[in-house]
């Protein structure tokens, strides 16, 4: 399978009016700022949204975005496996904002949370510190906890996946509220 088509922020900005933009970050990340007109369909909900995304792709081009591009590339591969052609935004919303383009926030009261990468850094750092402290204060075997996190981070970098992010995405503050995905899919169908 070939790599998904990638659009730079400049090209995406000029074509934004003709693209259906799907943001695959968590609802909290999406609430923190997203491309204008983007619809939030978290990566772990892509399978559920396949029929509606396929229908939208038949009407026009789809741009999939995330924070940096890794999750959107994964979503594009999933969609390509189901014969849905998409593109991804090079550098994600981080690059979009860095290039001076506006980010929109939901009008309703969705609370923004830290970005997934920041959540992973906090969690990994906390577990490493706890492992080291317990290793010094209780028993040296607790340092295995820190070594396990280090091994997980190396594996994550080598495979461009993140098991910790997948686990953190399941926390309540990172999940869509009941009905949010249904509302988003109805909006996608109406476009």
What do you see in this structure?
The protein is an alpha/beta fold and 191 residues long. Helices cover 53% and strands 8% of the residues. It has nine helices and five strands; from the N terminus they run βαβαβαβαβααααα. The chain has helices at 9-15, 27-31, 46-59, 70-81, 92-98, 116-137, 143-159, 163-168, 180-190, and strands at residues 5-7, 20-23, 39-40, 62-65, 87-89. Strands 1-5-4-2-3 form a five-stranded parallel β-sheet. Helix 4 (70-81) links the parallel strand 4 and strand 5 (87-89). The longest helix has 22 residues, at 116-137.
Outline the low-pLDDT stretches: none
User: Largest sheet, described in full?
Assistant: 5 strands, parallel
Strand order of the largest sheet: 1-5-4-2-3
Percent range of helical residues: 40-55%
Question: What structural class do helix, strand and pairing data support?
Answer: alpha/beta
Order of helices and strands: EHEHEHEHEHHHHH
Beta-strand portion reads 5-15%
| Shape label | elongated
What's the gyration radius in Å?
A: 18 Å
Average pLDDT metric: 88
The helix count comes to: 9
- Roughly how many Å apart are the termini? 29 Å
